[in-house]
Amino acid sequence: MTGGKSRPGKLKRILAIFGEEWLKNKLQEFYQKLLSMNKVAEELNKELEKHNIRIGKDFVHRVMDLYGIQKLSPGPRSEIIRKLGGEQRAREILATLYEKLGTAKKVQKALQGEISNPEIAAILKKHNIEPFRVNYIALYHIMDRMKILKRRKIKKRKYEEAIEALGGAEKAKNIIETLYNTVKIVNNEKRLMTINDVTEELNKILASKGIRISARITKELMTYLGIKKRIAGERVPVIPFEGTKEEMLYLWALCKGDAHRVKLRSGRVSIEFAGKDETAFCFPGILVKYNPNIKKWIKNLPRSPTGYAKFRIILDESFSFVLKKPQEIVGEIKNINQLAAYLAGLIDSEGSITAKKRYYGYIKRDKKIEISNKDKDLINATIWLLKAYNFHPQLKKNKRTGSGT
């Protein structure tokens, strides 16, 4: 700052000397030709240095943004256009090569110097193009955007031919749904047919029509016909829950104590149960009829006092009741039999039954049932339920573990 006045900025000085139109035209001209901010700055500096002004690429960036001059984004497409000398020149070279060669793949090979045709070599020499590495996808997109490619019009898609050969959309849908829900035995284990299995069976049907499809076409068929595809973990066939209300309450209580329950993305329910042998064997005994494919990790068998077992099973979405909160389940108990089933599940997982003799001048037998759990909602709901049926439960809190009994 001199004499209280600041020096005008570079842009103001340039506009004062050359004018806005000159600067805008020069930026467009140089950028179209050079496609590089550094090179544009160098060319402009040749003119500006006569007036003691020097600019850099940051100045070029800002002014181009100010005037709305379109810039190429960095990447393989910009690199190809840069190597070919700008948008207009690239359009001319690529159109000429495509007319001579017929495919984008051959144009790529020509630009990489892999085609030894004298006519192609002459075209590249005429435009001073040295061989360079070309990304095929980027080149294809450039040629497509410039409307150089002449795409072959597809008269009929493969999945449409398959539908016709199968006797129409309705019949095709019935055939594919039937196959997709068919149980297949692989390595002595039952599972539902996969898309690859369906494709294999469809090819047997379509062979007489001279049509062969891939798994991708089968997926397109299913999408077009509105057939919902399974996700991973759904191939094993499972049976919906068909038990009584008492069985449902027992299972909920058993899982609440010793099982980790998760709803899968497919809607099915995964239950992982771990505990002592005596308790753990209750778990597969109830659920094996709904899915025989139970994964087992068992130690110290046959059953021993120190034995430990772990089971994991995937069940139908009708088993979502195991995810309910204690308040919801308690509200479903309507009679003493249902209460007994609920308590049986809690006792098997989190309870104990004791009977002691005490002598006070006479023999007195103490019979006690204890249920311990850290879930306050479960303990409170169970106490409320027992009181509703004229029982007299007592709550004891363990200060060390925080559990209620």
Provide keyphrases for this structure.
four-stranded antiparallel sheet; 13% strand; disordered N terminus; two-stranded antiparallel sheet; alpha+beta; 405 residues; elongated
Give a structural overview.
With 405 residues, the protein is of the alpha+beta class. Among the domains are: 10-67, no CATH class; 76-145, no CATH class; 158-225, no CATH class; 245-320, Endonuclease I-creI (Roll). It contains 19 helices and eight strands. A four-stranded antiparallel beta sheet has the order 3-4-6-5. A hairpin with a 2-residue loop joins strand 1 (183-186) and strand 2 (189-192). The N and C termini lie far apart (82 Å).
Rg over CA atoms: 39 Å
CATH class of the domain at 245-320: Alpha Beta
Strand fraction equals 5-15%
The CATH topology assignment of the domain at 245-320 is: Endonuclease I-creI
Largest sheet: 4 strands, antiparallel
Terminal CA distance: 82 Å
Q: What characteristic shape results from the CA principal axes?
A: elongated
**Spatial strand sequence of the major β-sheet:** 3-4-6-5
| Structural class determined from secondary elements | alpha+beta
Number of H/I helices: 19
- Helices and strands, in order, run as HHHHHHHHHHHEEHHHEEHHEEHHEEH
Number of strands: 8
Contiguous low-pLDDT stretches (5 residues minimum) are 1-7, 298-304
CATH architecture of the domain at 245-320: Roll
Briefly say what this structure is.
This protein has 405 residues and is of the alpha+beta class. Helix content is 48%, strand content 13%. A hairpin with a 3-residue loop joins β7 and β8 (363-371).
